[in-house]
Amino acid sequence: MHLTVLDHPLVDHKLTLLRDKNTPSSEFRELVKELVTLEAYEATRNLSTTEKTVATPVGVAHGKKLNESPRPMVVPILRAGLGMLDGMMALLPMAEVGFLGLKRNEATLDIITYAQRLPEDLTGRECFLLDPMLATGGSLATAVHYLHDRGASKITAIDILAAKPGLERLEKEVRPEIDFSVVVCGVDDELNEHGYIIPGLGDAGDRLYGVV
Ligand code: PRP
Ligand code: URA
């Protein structure tokens, strides 16, 4: 697993606002969108390109364009990951979008897969998983193996906040043959007894969309 923790004053500023319990939902949603766009810059660093020559108004420029076949696959993990989709698609408009609905059983922290809408065959596809929170790592481990089992060749998770125990679990649990990276804005040391990241930012899904 390759881990990137963004180190940038814009990221620090926005993450601090996001953590603040007094930040209202409308602002929380905007901050999530802005943070994922900054993360996407890093997460897409290795996308493949082809040389392309274009005529400028005054000459010829030898540039590059992103390869569109196979199209990158963006997969928000419902529900909280949905809050990251618009920000990601703003940078990668040619991507396809698949959906994975995962829910933690709040008592056991086991993962329930309640929705899936993705191509059966992801052979050779680069996939970007979106989920603001990486707590115990159970949801992300489930999602990574799900995509790899369908043939995904490279998987990059974009999370806003991760907990150290969750990252350690992923190091152990994600099968070593999987080309897997994680990009986060920050890493907190602890989880509480309910599997919440401490100090974290609370329940990301609830802060985005309301309490269920
Ligand atoms: C949250 C979060 C992650 C998961 C992280 O989702 O969005 O998917 O918990 O926890 P883990 O690393 O311990 O698996 P939740 O299950 O609360 O569902 P929601 O997005 O519908 O709120
Ligand atoms: N899910 C969240 O939304 N927040 C946490 O701290 C842990 C899991």
Automatic annotation (TrEMBL):
Its EC number is 2.4.2.9. It comes from the Bacteria. One of its GO terms (molecular function) is GTP binding. InterPro entries: PRTase-like (IPR029057), PRTase_dom (IPR000836), Upp_B (IPR034332), UPRT (IPR005765), UPRTase/APRTase (IPR050054). Pathway: Pyrimidine metabolism; UMP biosynthesis via salvage pathway; UMP from uracil: step 1/1. Pfam families: UPRTase (PF14681). It catalyses: UMP + diphosphate = 5-phospho-alpha-D-ribose 1-diphosphate + uracil. Uracil binds at residues 197, 202-204. GO terms for cellular component: cytoplasm. Its cofactor is Mg(2+). The keyword Hydrolase does not apply. One of its GO terms (biological process) is uracil salvage. NCBIfam families: PRK00129.1, upp. Belongs to the UPRTase family. Catalyzes the conversion of uracil and 5-phospho-alpha-D-ribose 1-diphosphate (PRPP) to UMP and diphosphate. PANTHER family: ADENINE PHOSPHORIBOSYLTRANSFERASE (PTHR32315), URACIL PHOSPHORIBOSYLTRANSFERASE, CHLOROPLASTIC (PTHR32315:SF4). This is Uracil phosphoribosyltransferase.
